[in-house]
């Protein structure tokens, strides 16, 4: 028997019907005063989400556009950049640094670990010419998190610009952009915010704008952050046609977050993450992160039991029980599996359902998952 699918992937996440309905509203001309007012309103809501008084720009492309735009705008040939690597996405950012002529100083840890403040301070002491520090806050492929609240203030002490990839962190866990000294914070709507992919949401500090202006990046290109600042934020003219329907959806998702309360949303994600981890451990599985202290709240990564092949297991789970989860990504493919719990799916019912059928699918493949124990452990974290 075929069932409706429950998407518990590591993103994009399932979205609430209210968000889908908003996206289906009639298209407004992007210079219609009503749309311009809506766009400005979304920017103000994003300031509340990022906990910032800095400028907000919304670039028209999935969050990788924002990450490359930040590198393009800030890095010039010969600049020394400190890149913190604890996973696939952290390592990939080095491609952008090299692309725009930067010299990389790398702190690399195992992909089940996180960076320490001592390591960052040491790197700055040894390389006082570092101009930019880049770090992934929530490494979705690894299910881990870096302590940006401790790392970014160190970079600011040494006069560096801080660039934080929090694509799967913002809304799912605490992010205090101004308080923590984050100059460019980038997220996407398709993870814990609970909307669909296609936008880069960026908070940009005065220090970052000063650095960008001094770097003198090319203009009139889709990657130009300065075009958004000078054309839209200053003169009210969009440099390119905005993604109208995606702005509608984002607006609805943000309204839902603030109706619930931002701290309540953080707590809901944290509760569901703890429940998922507890459930998997009680079933007899091992978590991927070396410590739960560094486990992200957007998804739970766990090691694949021996003799179970990742791709066929995921297909069996999807086709037999209607639950969709994610494999490992990049070089972690085949080493781990990931259950997402973000946005609309960061709730007890989806998490309990996912645990039930992951356990059943594991039993089907010969692993003696203790489903009852897992559900009891998860419930104890939730209620």
Automatic annotation (TrEMBL):
The keyword Transferase applies. Residues 28-328 form the Aminotransferase class V domain. It holds the Pfam family Aminotran_5. Its EC number is 2.6.1.51. It comes from the Bacteria. Gene3D superfamilies: Aspartate Aminotransferase, domain 1, Type I PLP-dependent aspartate aminotransferase-like (Major domain). Signal peptide: none annotated. The modification N6-(pyridoxal phosphate)lysine is found at residue 191. It is an enzyme of class 2 (transferase). Keywords: Aminotransferase, Pyridoxal phosphate, Transferase. GO terms for biological process: glycine biosynthetic process, by transamination of glyoxylate. Substrate binds at residue 338. Belongs to the class-V pyridoxal-phosphate-dependent aminotransferase family. This is Serine--pyruvate transaminase. The lineage of its organism: Bacteria, Pseudomonadati, Spirochaetota, Spirochaetia, Spirochaetales.
